[in-house]
Design brief:
- The strands form 3 sheets. A 6-stranded mixed β-sheet has the order 6-9-10-3-11-12, sandwiched between helices.
- Helix 5 (165-178) runs parallel beside helix 6.
- A hairpin with a 2-residue loop joins strand 11 (231-236) and strand 12.
- The protein has a domain at 3-112 and 164-259: P-loop containing nucleotide triphosphate hydrolases (Rossmann fold), CATH 3.40.50.
- The protein is globular and about 75 Å long.
- The chain is built from 10 helices and 12 strands.
- It has helices spanning 60-67, 90-95, 113-117, 135-148, 165-178, 195-210, 222-228, 251-259, 261-273, 285-288; strands at 22-31, 34-44, 49-54, 75-80, 83-84, 98-101, 124-125, 132-133, 183-187, 214-219, 231-236, 239-245.
- The structure holds adenosine-5'-triphosphate (ATP) and magnesium ion.
- Magnesium ion is lined by residues 60-61.
- The site of adenosine-5'-triphosphate (ATP) has 11 residues, from strand 2 and helix 1.
Length: 300
């Protein structure tokens, strides 16, 4: 697959009429008397990328915590394959094929790539009590699976800590696919990455979709979302502000929803009341909404 393929769905089978694997209906979550999420509808279909966007505190993490089995919803319904569920542990979600790749990936930096690929689910050989790791088979399988996803690494023996953040995300995606995920949840996978590496991760999000997975892609970045997304759900203060398919919303509209044009105007007005800030010197709204390349940590 080339970068030009991003945003295209070559899978013939995926359609919007297909039954959702995961569905939320009027779902909400309160932590004590803090209502973090309220009345959210969301459908995740095979071979489709559902983007969940929203500012800090909008409820994105709360939403994926419900789906991934970390927290339980307190209102509405949560269905898997059309059946209402309530997971008490992430293991239960995983058993239903819902895999989550968190931003702080649970990898062991000094262990080789292939070893991390099988971390916690190692292949073994020989009868008990002399069972031992089947290293050859694990290396071969990891290599095949990474290639299947179009991920080419020079050497699977290298410690995973030596890979770039983007490459590590890709290994995590390939791993979830191999272990039978039907739904892949990615929590801000491009947030800490530069432009080029973000592109690489977006490419594998598209690859996971081509393999027929339903992807939930959490991001702050409407440009990243629009490159791979089939559906866009924008959260604001815990409720759905926008839920639209690709043909119902343009990148410009999506960016506007995210940037909160009205809020920026209000902020400018507020700043005008504070002495010492020359509002005429502040950037125009349009400039504030322009894409800002994420800078890798350290070079500010
Ligand atoms: N365990 C908790 N207890 C109490 N309140 C919580 C808890 N987790 C989240 N909240 C509140 O719920 C709201 C939504 O938080 P959430 O973490 O889901 O937002 P988010 O969209 O993921 O934000 P960010 O972009 O900063 O990650 C926030 O107001 C937050 O303070
Ligand atoms: Mg969050």
């Amino acid at each position: 697959m080339t970068t030009a393929d991003i945003g295209k769905n070559n899978g013939q089978v995926a359609t919007d009429d297909q039954a959702p694997v995961v569905e939320l209906r009027g779902t909400g979550k309160s932590y004590g008397n803090i209502r973090a999420l309220h009345g959210v509808d969301l459908a995740v279909r095979p071979g489709r990328v559902t983007c969940v966007l929203g500012d800090n505190g909008a409820g994105k993490s709360t939403l994926i915590k419900i789906i991934s089995g970390l927290h339980q919803h307190t209102e509405g319904e949560f269905l898997v394959d059309g059946e209402p569920v309530r997971f008490s542990t992430p293991r239960e979600a995983l058993d239903r094929g819902i895999a989550t790749v968190y931003q702080d990936l649970a990898t062991v930096p000094l262990m080789p790539v292939w070893r991390n690929f099988f971390l916690g689910s190692e292949m073994t050989k020989g009868p008990w009590p002399v069972r031992r790791l089947d290293i050859a088979r694990m290396k071969k399988t990891a290599d095949e699976e990474l290639r299947n996803m179009g991920i080419v690494l020079d050497d699977l023996e290298q410690p995973i800590g030596t890979l770039s953040g983007g490459q590590r995300q890709c290994v995590a995606i390939a791993r979830a696919v191999y272990f039978g995920a039907r739904v892949l949840i990615l929590d801000e996978p491009t947030a800490a990455l530069g432009v080029k590496q973000s592109g690489v991760v977006l490419k594998y999000i598209a690859a996971a979709r081509e393999r027929g997975l339903g992807v939930i892609f959490i991001t702050h970045n409407p440009h990243h979302a629009y490159m791979v997304g089939d559906h866009f759900s924008v959260l604001r203060l815990g409720t759905l502000e926008l839920s639209a398919s690709r043909d119902e919303v343009s990148l410009e509209e999506l960016t506007n929803h995210m940037a909160g044009g009205a809020e920026l105007a209000a902020l400018k007005h507020e700043l005008a009341q504070v002495g010492g800030v020359d509002v005429e010197e502040l950037p125009e709204e349009a400039d504030l909404q322009a894409p800002v390349a994420a800078s890798p940590e350290g070079n500010s």
